[in-house]
Specification:
Number of strands: 0
Distance between the termini: 81 Å
Structural class: mainly alpha
Keywords: Membrane, Transmembrane, Transmembrane helix
Largest sheet: none
Order of helices and strands: HHHHHHHH
Number of helices: 8
Shape: elongated
Helix content: over 70%
Radius of gyration: 23 Å
Number of domains: 1
């Protein structure tokens, strides 16, 4: 009888863990898409620098590889019929790593954007370019949301490794990455407002620094146009 009760408890624990996992896995595509959008914006601030583009693309690929490995490992552990405390603890640890990766990458992207924005603002003043302000505000807002989602998910993994209760589901829902899709909509609307001025009109400038060098243009080229044609328009 005791063995039957323990078996039922293990099955219920597995089902609850799988349900929490389903809630957590929703919206991962939105998070990945937003990372790509932010990379494009950072590259726009850095004038599509080839070295920076290569580094960021490799970073995104490494992130995808790490997260794929974590998902495979976590799912393989959850496929076990009965999850004991050690296995739940391992899943919690892998879940923490899964959310630390986008948190760190988001911080790096925000730092790169702010660093370049400081250069523009130093040359033109804080109100020099509205587009720069839009990019930085979205970048900071995105990182805050990622940080909050990461905190909720880390708490959720920690709670799951100890006990499964209604609070676990609530925390998992609060940390659902699908909320980040709201930011994606806000980003597109912000860029649409900038696009009303025309492609690259009001979105680029040339300011001479103290050493005589020219600050690079911020360029969002028209679809299908070559970079050389965009330069000739200036």
């Amino acid at each position: 009888m005791n063995n039957l009760i323990d078996s039922n408890v293990n099955v219920d624990t597995t089902l609850d863990a799988n349900l929490v996992s389903s809630v957590r896995s929703m919206g991962r595509g939105h998070k990945k898409c937003l990372h790509n959008i932010l990379v494009i914006r950072v590259l726009a601030l850095w004038s599509n620098n080839n070295k920076m583009a290569t580094i960021l693309k490799l970073t995104i690929l490494c992130e995808a590889a790490v997260k794929l490995g974590l998902v495979i490992k976590i799912n393989s552990l959850r496929d076990i019929c009965a999850l004991n405390e050690d296995q739940l603890s391992r899943i919690a640890t892998l879940g923490l790593i899964d959310w630390l990766v986008p948190t760190i990458i988001g911080f790096v992207l925000m730092s790169l954007a702010i660093h370049k924005a400081m250069i523009y603002w130093r040359e033109l003043g804080i109100n020099g370019l509205n587009l720069v302000s839009v990019i930085i505000k979205d970048q900071i807002f995105y990182y805050i949301l990622v940080l909050l989602c990461g905190i909720f998910n880390m708490i959720s993994y920690e709670v799951t490794s100890q006990e499964l209760a209604i609070s676990t589901y609530i925390i998992s829902i609060l940390g659902n990455p699908s909320f980040l899709c709201l930011l994606g909509s806000r980003m597109f609307f912000s860029l649409m407002e900038a696009a009303e001025l025309g492609v690259n009109e009001g979105t680029s400038h040339r300011a001479h620094g103290h050493d005589g060098r020219i600050v690079s243009d911020i360029q969002f080229a028209e679809f299908g146009d070559a970079p050389d044609n965009a330069d000739n328009e200036h």
